[in-house]
Design brief:
Number of domains: 1
Radius of gyration: 18 Å
Oligomer: single chain
Shape: globular
InterPro entries: EDR2-like, EDR2_C
Structural class: alpha+beta
Helix content: 10-25%
Number of strands: 15
Distance between the termini: 42 Å
Protein name: Protein ENHANCED DISEASE RESISTANCE 2 C-terminal domain-containing protein
Pfam family, one: EDR2_C
Strand order of the largest sheet: 1-15-6-8-7-12-11
Strand content: 25-35%
Length: about 280
């Protein structure tokens, strides 16, 4: 599958999905923190997007070339190369707070995923649900979509339909603090991490989606790093890339599933999930 890099096409698709996310009668499980325009949202659209990277508490897709991936000859020379695109488009994000874990967001009737599924479209959604521990539990969910058949990419197809052991052995995160405190940059680093080997990860497979739920609180080390990050959050620009690790010649070079850039998130602007 060729990387989907046409900005105009991506922008149009984002607008289409956001139009679908208008809050409908009966979808009352979200309560936004009061703001200037008192908007109500659906799951997948509670965090605003800003491709200019200027608005605080917003998301955008990060530049793929920021991240290094295994090259075509990695098994021989162990060299990594700059990524030149992503397989999926980022189309939404949630920034939530609750007194409990918020699991399987994609299955909720008020989610972008379900609204799009109701239209019978062929799109497949990939949701990364990152859960932070604490008395108040914060959830960061990132939504990606691919419009070509999964079968066109054998490794992705195997990952989506495989067992959890295989998924845990292959799903990688590359973090990067592009703006912020030196101590946070040093703590987070920029090394790819197999999340399933470091944290508790659960997977929810729906008809048109796979949601990956990452429990940051399952690791003492990760909890410490997360607490540090949350403490500096307003002053940080956080970039991430997600990919499936390639381990054979047929699976190389690697490809990025998607990227994100989070601009100066603010815990006070997270959306409250009603009990």
């Amino acid at each position: 599958s060729a990387p989907q890099s046409k900005l105009a096409s991506a922008a149009g698709f984002v607008k289409k999905l956001h139009d679908l996310a208008v809050h409908k009668k009966g979808c009352t499980d979200l309560q936004e923190v009061p703001n200037e325009d008192e908007k109500s949202w659906s799951y997948g659209a509670t965090l605003q997007t800003d491709s200019s990277f200027t608005s605080p508490c917003s998301w955008a897709a990060a530049d793929p070339s920021t991240f290094l991936i295994r090259g075509e000859n990695y098994l021989k020379d162990h060299r990594k190369i700059k990524a030149d695109g992503t397989l999926m488009q980022m189309i939404g994000a949630d920034w939530l707070r609750s007194n409990k874990r918020e699991d399987n967001l994609a299955a909720r009737p008020c989610s972008l995923v379900q609204k799009y599924a109701a239209g019978g479209g062929p799109e497949f959604f990939f949701v990364v649900n990152i859960q932070f521990p604490g008395t108040t539990k914060y959830t960061l969910a990132l939504y990606y979509v691919i419009k070509t058949p999964l079968e066109d990419n054998p490794l992705l197809h195997k990952f989506v339909n495989g067992d959890d052991a295989f998924r845990n052995s292959r799903f990688k995160l590359i973090p990067y603090i592009s703006k912020g405190s030196w101590i946070v940059k040093q703590s987070v680093g920029k090394t790819a991490c197999l999340l399933g080997r470091a944290l508790e990860v659960n997977y929810y497979r729906g008809r048109n989606y796979l949601e990956i739920q990452i429990d940051v609180g399952s690791s003492t080390v990760a909890t410490g790093v997360a607490s540090l990050v949350l403490g500096y959050l307003n002053n940080l620009v956080i970039e991430m890339a997600f990919l499936i690790q390639g381990e054979t010649e047929e699976e190389l070079p690697e490809f990025l599933l998607g990227t994100c850039r989070l601009n100066h998130l603010d815990v006070s602007k997270s959306v409250v999930v009603k009990k």
